[in-house]
Amino acid sequence: MSLTYFKRYRMEVDLGRVDFTQCKLPPGYKFVSYDSSLLSTHAETKYLSFRHEIDANVFPCLGDYDGCSRLMVEISRKEGFLPGATWLLAHMERDDGIDPGSRRLYDPDGVTFVGTVQGVEDRFGLGSIQNLGVVPEHRGRGLGGALLLKALDGFRRAGLRRAFLEVTAQNDGAVRLYRKLGFYKARTVYKAVELLGTAVR
Fold first, then answer.
1. What is the residue-wise DSSP string for 26-50?
2. Which pTM value belongs to this model?
């Protein structure tokens, strides 16, 4: 067992400076608002989004379906949990190219859930983005940015003026996206992680 450190950025944004007109989805996708009956759907989508990513090394629960389920319950029970900043993203056609070994949840209309984000108001009155993820098969279509903007709009509607998130520094694509949407690097933090004989992805 060895200890390693992951460099992470805390990035912040002034909600008054965010261009919410960019919150558009390509054809075939829709936002699904939070409902407590969708907790397991959020967990499933979170797991499929993060299981092969570096964040599953930083936060091992993200690489495990049961861990994602526990995490979603924990987030939903936080005092500052904001349903209006918590969203699923659905694709209106079943994708035959999906990995047949992965579990996949559908709503009664047969849509595939392909993205998730959760929002919490912290004790300082700031919006905190939790676990923004899009499944690999649907990346590169602007979905992550649209989901993030939808969550930020939920913070704004709740009367919050600022929001933040943390991102692993090696996740260049996510860092670029956040900067594009107006986030700036507020500080650098280091997360210590015990590695149990697994290689860092």
1. -TTEEEEE--GGGHHHHHHHHHHHH
2. 0.88
Q: Model confidence over 70-107: pLDDT tens digits?
A: 999 999 999 999 999 999 999 986 544 444 344 455 45
Q: Are 188 and 5 in contact (CB under 8 A)?
A: no
Of 46, 37, 129, nearest in space to 89 by CA: 46
Please give the average per-residue pLDDT across 97-118, as a whole number. 66
For each of the domains in the chain, give its residue range(s) and CATH number, in order of start.
2-195 (3.40.630.30)
Q: How far apart are CA 120 and CA 128, in angstroms?
A: 5
d(CA 31, CA 128): 20
Maximum CA extent, the chain: 48
Spatial distance between the Cα atoms of 92 and 28, rounded to a whole number of angstroms: 5
